[in-house]
From TrEMBL:
A Gene Ontology term for the protein's cellular component: cytoplasm
Name by which UniProt lists this protein: Alpha-1,4 glucan phosphorylase
Cited function: Allosteric enzyme that catalyzes the rate-limiting step in glycogen catabolism, the phosphorolytic cleavage of glycogen to produce glucose-1-phosphate, and plays a central role in maintaining cellular and organismal glucose homeostasis.
Alphabetized InterPro entries for the sequence: Glycg_phsphrylas, Glyco_trans_35, Pyridoxal_P_attach_site
Enzyme Commission no: 2.4.1.1
Family according to the record: Belongs to the glycogen phosphorylase family.
UniProt entry keywords in alphabetical sequence: Allosteric enzyme, Carbohydrate metabolism, Glycosyltransferase, Phosphoprotein, Pyridoxal phosphate, Transferase
GO function term, MF aspect, one: pyridoxal phosphate binding
Superkingdom of source: Eukaryota
Cofactor: pyridoxal 5'-phosphate
One Pfam family matching this protein: Phosphorylase
Enzymatic reactions: [(1->4)-alpha-D-glucosyl](n) + phosphate = [(1->4)-alpha-D-glucosyl](n-1) + alpha-D-glucose 1-phosphate
An annotated GO BP: glycogen catabolic process
Species whose genome carries this gene: Ostreobium quekettii
């Protein structure tokens, strides 16, 4: 591979070597004679940043000149992970840079580990945004990400005496070479205060007189595309005080309040809320959301006005905004506010433009996760926006009156009430709430779910009435992941093997070409090479497990992995129950019988929201059961269970390529999509899962590659109840008769077999049928789960067949490239076209 022709910066190893040394000296004040690993990493990163800037500027210049339509991806989260290797490889500079480092006495991969993850996200939703940026840049689509530059990202998870402890993520102390501070790009953002209204004739002018103001300052994070000059941009906002500090208070000796304004302003972008799926209604969170959305819209409108003046009716031809869940939905009211109050448009024009530029993605149907802000809070911090939302709601309800005029009166009113944007809290009728999802649906031209089943479910559940009114507004966009980070760079040996087999590396940007691997599944020589790569990846994970736990594991064992946020609906508890069952079975065997047991190393990792007690119980249980099993001399050669601490993007990059089996076992109908399932499929890990989220489409693709006779589910280990049966089963779960093996395990946990007696609440949550528990139907799925685990073991004993399937998984994973997802967004929602730097 050679470097891109247009780059002005030399990239031969010698020049890179001396450039890096210069950075060590002039940027970091380091000594050329003593280049520590951290200094070498930084020198390298500062050098690469210049390549990135060069390309980003070339891209922006072209885009400014041609003025194409842009997409702005608004997201409270971007879970980027590390950038060093991603940058080097996207820029196709691996060879010269690896050599230059060798001259410095370092190995590139080891140095790369010096970088701290950019953990500006909770889980799937944030990582999806990062994959989307990669795909947009790679496909030369004019688009930017907009978000928040959190000073502290996702907390670091430490396990102390078996319990999760949260430690702040101090990720910026060594500086961040991947961002460029833009003191020239600043916008004021206001909060609070009151409204002043002046009526002239029939026209009412509203002026918002806020009582708090902060400054949003931009940081640009260049996003390199793979195999292209194009480099996108992720613009993150930092909140700063208007006045550095109150000199007056300081002079009066009031040192603490002198810093008040600074503290209050900086608090806004200080920390990522670590709740995944169960948001808390904290006012600061609303301020974060408004802060980044207001700055982003002001920024876009300022650029638009430079080119098009006040021809705002052109805006929908030049810009669209994708709302990543409801978090940026206040942008709908902000757009109306900017167009009406600042630009002087009338309401109808402003509303018409607004509904043409926003599109909304829903990522979950968990009722507690749907954001609803108390009107009281909204009015306090955003009085003008609250009023705008009330007007939108009034007009919306008037529209519905018309639209549903055929309905009987009571029925019609009930439907309107269900679709209201502002409505009473169902638990406390006194309190009025703003339903952000309803605002997002009303204010957007398109609403999408993130996998086919999920998109179908939202049309018949949370958005049922809306779907009746606007059937064409609803679409599906099945998620995808970037094959560069999640296969090419994190599993380089497999990528090399694939390229050898296919005779081209074009599959890296055209993933459907992976289907060309199909015949190789029948080739014994190729299967041998395929398993050798897996084994090497398992050695790498084995070393990681040793580093994190002190234990050695046998890499010939089956590596059985479940990694994702800890949540009741994801059912890590069910996984543990089957591990306990396996333990009991092995204990009851004779030494002779034990010879036929398939050895497994089970790994669970993931973070629990800080206040989510049941999730924290699950982490404790994994640890406690693991301690029992891993130290039992009769069992430890045949079964292990580890909870790996501080799951993040970088750990995922080591775990996923090493998986033989991965588990995606949510109660059917609860996991909107899942995205790690796609990463595991790409890396040839067999899947044990329920018919939920994207598992269904993965199963369809795996069936399709096997030919017309294969049925959906063939080649995977599928179990559990169907999504359509879940409501009925939930009603009947009081009468459900549990399996005796289930009862036995529950007794063991209760009586303290795992050296801990604090599991009562957890056990009750799935066991106390009389109080109507086990919402996620663990007991219903327990027996079939054990059965399918036996199928897994049987298949493992036939390694030829196992590896054959593994190859077919990778071969059929092309659909789940985020390139496919993003092309569909671009064509079916955004109407943006590629524009590549020559
Ligand atoms: C909201 C308010 C306050 C604090 C936190 C939140 C919040 C943050 C993240 C709520 C939900 C959040 O994430 C939900 C999420 O990650 N959903 C996942 O989205 C993935 C990408 O579409 C899907 O693959 C997963 O199935 C879905 O669970």
């Amino acid at each position: 591979r050679k470097r891109a022709e247009t780059s002005k910066k030399p990239t031969d190893p010698e020049t890179v070597h001396s450039d890096v040394l210069a950075k060590v000296e002039f940027n970091s004040g380091g000594n050329r004679g003593q280049v520590t690993a951290l200094l070498a990493y930084q020198g390298l990163a500062w050098n690469l940043r210049e390549h990135l800037m060069e390309r980003m500027i070339a891209t922006q210049n072209l885009w400014r000149e041609k003025d194409p339509k842009f997409v702005y991806y608004l997201s409270a989260e971007f879970l980027m992970g590390r950038s060093l290797l991603n940058t080097i490889q996207n820029l196709e500079l691996y060879e010269p840079y690896a050599q230059a480092l060798k001259m410095l006495g370092y190995n590139l991969e080891t140095l790369a580990e010096k970088e701290r993850d950019a953990s500006l996200g909770n889980g799937g939703l944030g990582r999806l945004a990062a994959c989307f940026l990669d795909a947009m840049a790679t496909m030369n689509l004019p688009g930017w990400g907009y978000g928040i530059r959190y000073k502290y990202g996702m907390f670091k998870q430490i396990i102390k005496d078996g319990e999760q402890m949260e430690v702040p993520d101090v990720w910026l102390t060594d500086g961040n070479p991947w961002e460029v501070r833009r003191p020239d790009v600043v916008f004021p953002v206001s909060f609070g205060g009151k409204l002043k209204k002046t009526v002239t004739g029939s026209h009412e002018l509203v002026e918002w007189i806020p009582d708090e103001q902060v400054i949003a300052m931009a940081y640009d994070v260049p996003i390199p595309g793979f195999n292209t000059q194009n480099t996108g941009n992720l613009r993150l906002w930092e909140s700063l005080p208007v006045n550095e500090f109150d000199l007056d208070a300081f002079n009066k000796g009031d040192i603490l309040s002198a810093y008040n304004e600074k503290g209050r302003a900086e608090a806004i972008t200080s920390v990522l809320y670590p709740n995944d799926s169960t948001p808390e209604g904290k006012a600061l969170r609303l301020k974060q959301q408004y802060f980044f959305v207001s700055a982003s819209l002001q920024d876009v409108l300022a650029r638009f006005k430079k080119v098009h003046g006040n021809q705002f009716d052109l805006l929908p031809e030049k810009a669209c905004f994708q709302l990543n869940d409801t978090h940026p939905t206040i942008g709908i009211a902000e757009m109306v506010h900017l167009l009406v109050d600042k630009e002087g448009l009338d309401w109808e024009a402003a509303w018409g433009i607004t509904t043409k530029v926003f599109a909304f993605t829903n990522h979950t149907i968990m009722p507690e996760a749907l954001e609803k802000w108390p009107v009281k809070v909204m009015r306090e911090f955003l009085p003008r926006h609250m009023e705008i939302i009330e007007t939108i709601d009034t007009q919306w309800q008037a529209f519905l009156e018309e639209k549903l005029s055929e309905m009987p009166k009571a029925e019609k009113q009930a439907a309107i009430d269900r679709m209201a944007i502002v409505h009473p809290n169902q638990w406390n009728k006194e309190e009025m709430l703003v339903n952000m999802a309803h605002l997002a649906v009303v204010g957007s031209h398109t609403v999408n779910g993130v996998a086919q089943i999920h998109s179908d479910i939202i049309k018949s559940t949370i958005f049922k009435d809306f779907h009746g009114v606007f059937p064409l507004k609803f679409q599906n966009k099945t998620n995808g992941v970037t094959p560069r980070r999640w296969l090419v760079f994190s599993n380089t040996d497999l990528a090399t093997l694939i390229t050898e087999a296919l005779g081209t590396q074009e599959w890296m940007t055209n993933c459907k070409l992976l289907e060309g691997l199909k015949p190789f599944a029948e080739d014994a020589e190729f299967r041998k090479k395929w398993s050798a790569v897996k084994r090497k990846n398992k050695e790498r994970l084995g070393a990681k497990i040793r580093e994190l736990t002190g234990d050695d594991v046998d890499t010939s064992s089956m590596f059985d992995i479940q990694i994702k946020r800890i949540h009741e609906y994801k059912r890590q508890f069910l996984n543990v129950l089957s591990v306990i069952r396996r333990y009991n079975t092995i204990k009851a065997m004779t030494p002779e019988e034990r010879k036929s047991v398939v050895p497994r190393v089970c790994v669970i990792a993931g973070k629990a929201a800080s206040s989510y007690e049941r999730a924290k119980d699950i982490i404790r249980l994994v640890g406690a059961v693991g301690d029992t099993i891993n130290t039992d001399p009769e069992v430890r050669d045949l079964l292990r269970l580890y909870f790996l601490p501080d799951y993040n993007v970088s750990l995922a990059e080591v775990i996923i390529p090493a998986a033989d089996l991965s588990q995606h076992i949510s109660t059917a109908g609860t996991e909107a999509s899942g995205t790690s399932n796609m990463k595991f499929q790409m890396n040839g890990s067999l899947i044990l899962g329920t018919m939920d989220g994207a598992n269904i489409e993965i199963a369809e693709e795996i069936a399709a590659i096997q030919g017309p006779d294969a049925k959906v589910g063939d080649g995977l280990f599928i179990f559990g109840v169907d999504a359509k049966d879940v409501p009925k089963l939930r009603k009947e779960r009081k009468e459900f008769k549990t399996d005796p093996r289930w009862d036995e395990i529950m007794d063991m946990i209760k009586k303290g077999t795992f050296g801990n007696d604090k599991f009562e609440a957890l056990v009750d949550s799935v066991n106390d049928m009389t109080v109507g528990n086990d919402w996620f139907l663990l007991a219903n799925d327990f027996a079939t789960y054990l059965d399918v685990q036996d199928e897994v073991d049987a298949m493992w004993k036939n390694q030829d067949e196992w590896v054959r399937r593994s190859i077919l998984y990778t071969a059929s994973s092309g659909k789940f490239s985020s390139d496919r997802t993003i092309s569909q967004y671009a064509e079916e929602i955004w109407d943006v076209q590629p524009l590549a730097v020559a």
